[in-house]
Amino acid sequence: MTTSPSPVYDIQKELVKSNEHPSTKPLWKHLSEGSLLAKMDPNVALSYRKALYSSKQYKHDQDDSSSCLSSFSSNTDHIYLKGTEDRVVVYFTSLRVIRKTYEDCCSVSMIFKGVRVCVDERDISMDSSYRKELQDMLQGKTLSLPRVFIRGKYIGGLEEIKQLHDTGELAKLLEGFAFMNDGFTCDSCGEVRFVPCPSCNGSQKLFEEEEGKSMRCPRCNKNGLIRCPGCCP
């Protein structure tokens, strides 16, 4: 009974021959990818092809991601939030009227909490001045929340933050910022970022004794709230 030579034995024999002649090229330079895979065990060859495809696909995705971010950055360089060069600012909403918008805002919040960076959170549902502030910067463009600024520069929304986080670029952008302690919760506002105005107790009105009439409280917003002095810069 005759047996066919082992593919592994054949490859080893060819390697020995190539080593006997230093001037010859290594075996892998003589054989094409197909020739090498043909001599392998079918299961090994299949695993190799899958790994090779995954590697090429990953590189392709990384290139696409970098290209997308470069293009995005060049189109938004003119958008700048003055006075915030020392912080991360996130415009978001705590209202659940539009489920996707609310979930996107939560996702961005979780990413920044994961890296433990202090964030200046600006809830447009709690203070309408934030909405106007954002609209003025975006020059009337209609964009969904959340919107993120780092050191005054406009970064984008959830997709841009996810891409930066996945590629490790977000960590580079956040270098130098202060970090929060794990599990930190503000005792004053309970992470709401707003507290009732201490001047008018949230009524939005103050009584002017000299003139004998009430006037609009200058400290609070339309909801009778002020930014929490305990956790908001």
TrEMBL record:
InterPro entries reported for this sequence: Glutaredoxin, Thioredoxin-like_sf
Any single Pfam family the record assigns to this protein: Glutaredoxin
Domain of life from the UniProt record: Eukaryota
PROSITE patterns: GLUTAREDOXIN_2 (PS51354)
Glutaredoxin domain mapped to chain residues: 89-155
Record PANTHER family: GLUTAREDOXIN DOMAIN-CONTAINING CYSTEINE-RICH PROTEIN CG12206-RELATED, GLUTAREDOXIN DOMAIN-CONTAINING PROTEIN
Protein name: Glutaredoxin domain-containing protein
